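hey so i finally got around to running the thing on that chain from the lab meeting. sorry it took forever, my laptop kept dying and i had to restart like 3 times. anyway pasting the input first so we r on the same page abt which one it is
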Amino acid sequence: MRKYSTPGLVFSLLALAGLLLSTTPATAGSVVASKHNLSFAGTTTQVCVYCHTPHQPEDFGGSQITTDPLWNHELSANAAYGVYDSPTFDAGPGNLNTISDIGGGSEISNLCMSCHDATVGLSSLYKEPTDGTSGVLPTMDLFNPRANLGTDLSNDHPVNFLYNAALVAADGALVNPDSASSVDATGNIRLFAGSVQCASCHNPHDPDNLPFLAVSNNASALCTSCHLK
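ok and heres what got predicted. didnt touch it at all, straight out
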């Protein structure tokens, strides 16, 4: 039986192992260890249930609902949100409306607001968890006041506007979008139906860059993903 224990071979194997480790992509943070894991409040052991369910009908209880992405949380009944506008905002304000734009780009932001406008209880679900609950979670203003955006978004970064070549030409200080689905070639700064939504800047499943930023904002890196400054 031949033994392969020469120093040269051992060195080569170690070098190969180091190369493999160095080329393995870093894994993103998990929602399990984030503030979006509401199961820590003792209501259930399930993590995903507060947002998603594997079996979702078109409608439940007469409430406006979306099946994408298998959404499990009751949407806000707020008819429209006040949105940002200014003389230098070349896109113009895009109304964020929970009633009329289900299926459009703003649907993504409406999903966020179903918790973050503080008008709906956090545990207002279509499908309740099956492992037993020990309580009902309140609205966001009581559960985590800092995360309560309210129903007036006029003092927040604008959302629900088209980010395209026409806007880049009109503004003169924006990065050309890589495609209708992403500003950057890596796909980190996402667009939805060609529009900027909450999830363009935030990744609700990855807490690595607080507060759930799509990329690190060190040296304003998130801002300069879109803005030429």
